[in-house]
Each structure stands twice: as structure tokens, then as C-alpha cells.
Hints:
With 303 residues, this protein is an alpha/beta fold. It has helices spanning 13-19, 26-37, 53-61, 89-92, 107-120, 122-126, 145-157, 178-188, 226-229, 236-239, 246-250, 253-263, 287-301; strands at 3-8, 40-43, 68-72, 130-136, 162-166, 191-196, 217-221, 266-270, 275-277, 284-286. The strands form two sheets. Strands 1-2-3-4-5-6-7-8 form an eight-stranded parallel beta barrel. Strands 9-10 form a two-stranded antiparallel ribbon.
Amino acid sequence: MSIRVGTCSWADESLSALWYPKGVNGAEGRLRYYAEHFDTVEVNASYYALPTAQMATAWADRTPSNFLFHVKAFAMMTRHPVKVEQLPPELRSEAEVDERNRVHPSEELRTRVFTEFHRALQPLRDLGKLGGVLMQFPPYITYGEPALRYIEWAQQQLGGDEMLVEFRHRSWLEPDARERVLGFLRDLGASYVIVDAPRTGAKNVLPTVVAVTGPTAYLRLHGRNAATWNVRGKSAAERFDYLYSEDELREWVEPLHDLDTATGRVFAMFNNNGRSVEASTGFEIAQAPVNAAMLQEQLSATL
């Protein structure tokens, strides 16, 4: 199928504890096993620290020739806060740091971060294993001219890699802004990220708008756990703790096939990291890979 299904990380705690069989250990063994079941994945670790070419070479070596990696942008690239120890040692001396050890980057430092990120992914690029760069903007980046200008600048820094743009503030898709935002991304050639999330109407939860603005149709499924999404003190793992039902996944079968007809390049990526007890067996399961396999089966059955 040209609709590819995967998970947002192959090293999440729930996968490591529950999905990988006994005897499948270490980074190499887990990625090789993952690639036997899915042909695409998001790299999540790159959000917390800049990747290296050595890492990218190892990822490429452990996966089949048709495998694709989407790489989440380092936090500074999407204007998330970063502590100085998250930077490579050679960049730390250039950073202005506040009393909480957070970096206040100059444009020059931010540009260098983009350059190092781009250089690190060259082994994937050389082998045709690099999908897109996921630019997931925080909820405090709201729709407006400064943010639009930053996105234009950031795309230039990516050096030709495909930008996958995920917004986290509702202002980007409000009725009076939606068409301009989607048109802006089309003009850039950037790919808008569709989200499946709780339907709460909260400012930091986007509505599910099915649209294509670039070469790729990209869906991220965050789960629909409205009870934990905005509870103060909850972790990201608790926010995305959700197991989709067969019926909920079936809602996506027709839209994904329609997107496939429109683009021929579709990805559905599960970010509902967490664990559930399977009713029929009483055993704990890792939600993201289980749901990914369920959706794969549904899509195959409707070809």
C-alpha cells in the first residue's frame, strides 16, 4: 500500500516493556524487529537532543531499503525551551543562558542548530530513507504574521527537506484563518499535519481538518483522552494514553484512501503511547503498535 502506518517512536517505554518479545534487546534489536512489522517510524529522540550522523547511519543500517524515517525537529527549531545541556558541547559556549539554565538563542545559534540537524540526517538522505522533518509547534505559537515569517525562515533552513507542520493552537484552524493558513503552506510546499485528538474545543487541541498542502498527507493520532489532556501536572504519556477502538479507527479508512488517491503518499502515525489491559486476555498491551496493526488490517481489507 502507498498508505504507510507506523508509530511515533520505536523506543517508547510501553513498546519496550510490552511489545517487543523476550530476547529482542537493545537499540539495534528493537529497530530491526520494528521494521519487520512497519515500514515507517517517527524519530522522537531528536526533539530532546540533536541527532548525529553516526546515529542516522545506524538507523539506516538496521532497516530495509524501503523503510522511511520521519525525524522530529529539535526543540529549539520549533521554539520550544531548551536547556543548555541539551546542546552539543561545541555549541554551548555560544548560548545565552538564564537563571534556570534555559537557552535564549540568537538567530545565529538557531541557524547553526538547523545546520547541524541537517548535516546529521545525510546518511538517511543518501539512501532515500528520510521522509519529512516534523515541525511540531507549541501551543503558545499562535496564528499571526510573526509566526508565518518564522515558518518561512525555518523552511529555508531545512535545505530542501520536506517540512511537516503540526500546529498545537486552535487559532491556526479557526474558520477565519483556515484557508489562509492552508494556502500559505501550499505556497511553501510544506505538508500540513492532520491530527486526531480529543474533540474538546480547548485552545491547545486542533480540530480534525483533513487537507493536503504538500507532497505528503500526514496524520498523527494522539488518542482521544479528553480526561487527561489538560489536567495540570499530567505527563505527556498520560495525555496520550488512549486505545482506539475498531470503530474509531474505521472512521479513518475512507479518508486515508481518499488522501491516497489525491497524493499517493500517505502516512498514519500513532502517538497514543501508553498501555491498556486487553479485555479478551487480561494482559497489558502497548497501545500504539497494536492500534497501528489494527489500522493496517482495516486498510488492507478495503483495497
